[in-house]
Amino acid sequence: MASAVVRVRERARGVFYGWYIVLAASGIQLLQTGLLMQAYGSYVVVLQSEFGWSKTALAAAFSLQRVESGLIGPIQGWMLERWGPRAVMRAGTIIFGLGFMAFSQVDSLIMFYLTFLMMALGSSLGGFISLTSSIVNWFERRRATALGITQVGMSVGGIMAPLVAWSLLEFGWRATAFGSGVLVIVIGLPLVQVMRDAPEKYGLRPDGEPPDAVRSETVTIAGVEHERADFTARQAMRTRAFWFISIGHALALLVVSSVMVHLVAHLKEGLGFSLTAAATVLAFMTAVTMVGQVVGGFLGDRFDKRMITTLAMFGHSGALLALAWGGNLFWVLVFAVVNGLAWGMRGPLMQAIRADYFGRKSFAMVMGFSSMIVMWGMMSGPIIAGAMADYFGNYQWGFTVLAVLAGCGSVFFILATKPTPPRERWV
Q1: Backbone angles phi, psi at 243, to 5 degrees
Q2: HSE of 118 in the Cβ direction (CA atoms, 13 Å)?
Q3: Which of 98, 173, 375, 380 sees the fewest Cβ atoms within 10 Å?
């Protein structure tokens, strides 16, 4: 441990070590998003063509992946508090890479589901909650900015969508999947080695403050002075804010997940786009998302995060309606710009709000329990859109239902006011 402290402090000279964690986390997000999350829509098209599986069946695999991720959330939170992010993420990265390799060998729907559950376990342990809990510990005043930069990796990964689509056509989906597994392990493991737990363990302080500075009982975030308070997971779950943020987040992910799974299919089958052109639209949207993430992080450290998030929810809703009923390239581009900005600005603020409200100490456990609620949005969005597309023959009504639900989600963020800091401690 002593040598680790020395290495971290030496590397941190001149540049706060937290920014190294941000860059590594962004690279990990790039791998996971580019090779799986944003690429899944392209896999849907080629798998449906080869095996004849329905849109509902293919969407169910994506949803099962999110269910597993949500269910292990509390266990993952405990693991992060027990062993720290690096050990948990190392195991997750290996499982994720091996899951991709196993996926390349599937020849039945059951095997397809099983390999995706394996990939879900790996990507969860090596991904979002683990990354976020580490960054939350290393930043307070600039937390939204750090989270926004981290999530830029997700957008860059989305820009890879045409490359993955090209690989699917050029080399086939099996070779592409196996190669993706190799990349996850070869590139992902070195990035995981950068991750660290709380800065205090290495003689540092959040945001790079002097180690010997007197710790104030308050911290100023977005121009507002907040009393420092660390809720336990149980205390957080007793607040209205915990439930309203989780439900609002779930409703936002109705749109995000359905777009990940069905956008390429909708553009190809409903609007006559080629597979490569459809993937290019997805890449353009994620490029806009990248701008939104940087802007959202910057604004989130200076203005009310709840109000920014509320506006973003209306953006999700309006964009999906434009995609459902627009019917031509202009409205597709309107969707890509508006949804990309809404997604990008909202994304980093979800975690920043939770950390502002509930503190750093038990953040991993708070996020773990919250993920059990959030998963319902990630799970049900693709199934609703896919089932209604199978029934009606297009995505219009499925996207419309999801757009209305996302618009209603704004209400939950408006009502999710900061809870009173706990005065008692429960074990």
Answers
A1: -75, -40
A2: 19
A3: 98
Judge whether 162 and 367 are in contact, CB under 8 Å.
no
Q: Give the pairing of strands 218-221 and 224-227.
A: antiparallel
What gap in Å lies between CA 374 and CA 370, rounded to an integer? 6
| Mean pLDDT, residues 5-24 | 71
Distances 73 to 77, 135, 147, 283, 423 between C-alpha atoms, Å: 6, 17, 19, 29, 27
Amino acid letter at 291? V
Banded model confidence at residue 103, pLDDT cuts 50, 70, 90: very high
Tokens 């493991």, residue located: 189
Which tokens belong to 281? 């639209």
Contact between 63 and 377 under an 8 Å Cβ cutoff? The reply is no
Residue 264 · residue 274 · CB < 8 Å? no
Which structure tokens are listed for 22? 């941000």
| Residue 85 vs residues 95, 118, 201, 288: alpha-carbon distances, Å | 15, 19, 13, 30
Residue pair 262/392 in contact by the 8 Å Cβ criterion: no
